[in-house]
């Protein structure tokens, strides 16, 4: 059975897409069968996986509107080691088109169920909003991975996301949990970042992943080559951190399997 995770944070530019594509590539590297789902109309995860969003005939948009199955819409990407359900600007219209349709928040969940046997892990790159698209992601998932920068307003911004996750957990998807908070773009030389990092650990305890992703220029350069950093420059500090993170995720997955269903989300 595939374990399904959203990479979510309602802020833009915090590292969601970088986390999605590099965790996907890192997991693939350690032998997991991975599907990445681009749920952001910007299509950055699509481009960053080496897939030209403008050339895509079928995308997650078609899947949400049920004009294509996941099996029809997914792309096999041997260069990066995982499969991709891509997105492009068309997806921005889905929000409006889904509004009057039944099961509008469950479209992705039902679609992913049809490829459950094909993957060990499904990673969903969410848009920077708590929209119907993100809701489709949260209703599909067993857990949420929250990338965040250790900046002054980091904790404040988190409360909306945590509240949304709690509401989805209570009303729509009882198996949803926060898997963990991932510190990204971390620069240990900056005292404030160290302080916020300590605050995060004090507040969220072991929900903070042990792995820290450093600020690393190779991770930022990789998308312009259509590759995750893990594939573009495996020796770079950023790539190594993501492969380490993939290992930590696999260990947490093992814990998840043994945890009782409906373990409450962190406060
Ligand atoms: P989001 O998907 O949340 O909008 P992105 O993953 O696109 O965020 O990241 C925002 C920007 O920061 C991108 O230009 C990306 O290349 C860069 N970036 C992300 N993570 C790192 C990192 N660890 N080191 C350096 N640059 C990074
Ligand atoms: Mg993004």
Automatic annotation (TrEMBL):
Residues 84-111 form a coiled coil. Transmembrane segments: none annotated. Residues 3-178 form the AAA domain. Keywords: Coiled coil. InterPro entries: AAA_dom (IPR025669), DNA_Partitioning_ATPase (IPR050678), P-loop_NTPase (IPR027417). This is Chromosome (Plasmid) partitioning protein ParA/sporulation initiation inhibitor protein Soj. The lineage of its organism: Bacteria, Pseudomonadati, Pseudomonadota, Betaproteobacteria, Burkholderiales.
């Amino acid at each position: 059975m595939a374990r399904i995770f959203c990479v979510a944070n309602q802020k833009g530019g915090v590292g969601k897409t970088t986390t999605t594509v590099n965790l996907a590539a890192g997991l693939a590297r350690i032998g997991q069968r991975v599907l990445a789902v681009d749920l952001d109309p910007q299509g950055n995860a699509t481009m960053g996986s080496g897939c030209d969003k403008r050339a895509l005939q079928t995308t997650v948009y078609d899947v949400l509107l049920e004009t294509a199955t996941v099996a029809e819409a997914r792309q096999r990407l041997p260069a990066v080691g995982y499969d991709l359900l891509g997105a492009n600007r068309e997806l921005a219209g889905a929000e409006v088109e889904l509004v009057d349709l039944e099961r509008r928040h469950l479209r992705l969940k039902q679609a992913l169920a049809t490829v459950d046997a094909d993957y060990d892990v499904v990673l969903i790159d969410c848009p920077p909003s708590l929209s119907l698209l993100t809701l489709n992601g949260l209703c599909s998932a067993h857990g949420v991975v929250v990338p965040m920068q250790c900046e002054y307003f980091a904790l404040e911004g988190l409360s909306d996301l945590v509240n949304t996750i709690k509401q989805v957990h209570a009303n729509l998807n009882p198996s949803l949990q926060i898997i963990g908070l991932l510190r990204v773009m971390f620069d240990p030389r900056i005292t404030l970042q160290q302080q916020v990092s300590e605050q995060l650990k004090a507040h969220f305890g072991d929900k903070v992943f042990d792995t820290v992703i450093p600020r690393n220029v190779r991770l930022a350069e990789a998308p312009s080559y259509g590759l995750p950093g893990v594939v573009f420059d495996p020796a770079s500090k950023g790539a190594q951190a993501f492969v380490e993170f993939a290992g930590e995720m696999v260990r947490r997955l093992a814990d998840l399997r043994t945890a009782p269903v409906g373990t409450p989300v962190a406060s």
